[in-house]
Design brief:
The complex is a heterodimer of chains A (114) and B (113). Helices cover 0% and strands 47% of the residues of chain A. Chain A has strands at 9-13, 18-23, 31-38, 45-50, 53-56, 61-64, 70-75, 84-92, 108-113. In chain A, strands 1-9-8-3-4 form a five-stranded mixed sheet, with no helix packed on it. With 113 residues, chain B is an all-beta fold. In chain B, a hairpin with a 3-residue loop joins strand 4 and strand 5. The model of chain B has no long low-confidence stretch (mean pLDDT 91). At the A-B interface, strand 3, strand 4 and strand 8 of A face strand 4, strand 5, strand 9 and strand 10 of B.
Chain lengths: 114, 113
């Protein structure tokens, strides 16, 4: 199971682009990379998922280099409501019922400053 | 509305008094799991279930039991709660496996005195 490493905390000003990087040196061939957002006392919320190169949706982009040993979540023009903890998760998508055990890391606490 | 529900949301109990936290999803998902979240430790998986009558241990299963008799329900049972099980608990479900899109419940804050 690929272990992930993220910065413990980050600060940014409103309106800026924020990039959070996650290291996953032991990522396996079948592993996908998924990012979640969590507000205090709420369950994590899925943000974006990718396998390689770049993925973009309405809230974020995910950049994955060719070696896939890291990934970067990019949040464009953040606002105060983006203050949350962000988790990077690496694991088999389970289409072939691979290893189902899953552990989240400690995440990155992002604080947006007015 | 697609959702995962948990009950109760808050619970204060005493050591040794058996309790059950219920989890239910309305999306016909095969995969369900339980996590606990503690300060500085992130989310840790307790148990998971890949389908009815199929369950397995996660990273921190000691002191917990689960059952999956119906597809929609996945209760977490603490036979003899202890203070070190004081935590915030989340149930999650998905159509398949690990990194796929997961729906999380709102959480249950448990305090064992």
């Amino acid at each position: 199971l690929a272990k992930t490493t993220q910065p413990i905390s980050m600060d940014s000003y409103e309106g800026q682009e924020v990039n959070i990087t996650c290291s996953h040196n032991n990522i396996a061939t079948n592993d996908y990379i998924t990012w979640y957002q969590q507000f205090p006392s709420q369950g994590p919320r899925f943000i974006i998922q990718g396998y390689k190169t770049k993925v973009t949706n309405e809230v974020a982009s995910l950049f994955i280099p060719a070696d896939r040993k890291s990934s970067t979540l990019s949040l464009p023009r953040v606002s105060l409501s983006d203050t949350a903890v962000y988790y990077c998760l690496v694991g088999d998508r389970g289409d072939d019922f691979g290893n189902e055990k899953l552990t989240f890391g400690t995440g990155t606490r992002l604080t947006i400053i007015p | 509305e697609a959702q995962v529900t948990q009950n109760p949301r808050y619970l204060i109990t005493v050591t040794g008094k058996k309790l059950t936290v219920t989890c239910s999803q309305n999306m016909n998902h095969e995969y369900m799991s339980w996590y606990r979240q503690d300060p500085g430790l992130g989310l840790r998986q307790i148990y998971y279930s890949m389908n009815v009558e199929v369950t397995d241990k996660g990273d921190v299963p000691e002191g917990y039991k689960v059952s999956r008799k119906e597809k929609r329900n996945f209760p977490l049972i603490l036979e003899s709660p202890s203070p070190n099980q004081t935590s915030l608990y989340f149930c999650a479900s998905s159509t398949s496996g690990l990194a796929h899109l997961k729906y999380f419940g709102p959480g249950t804050r448990l305090t064992v005195t």
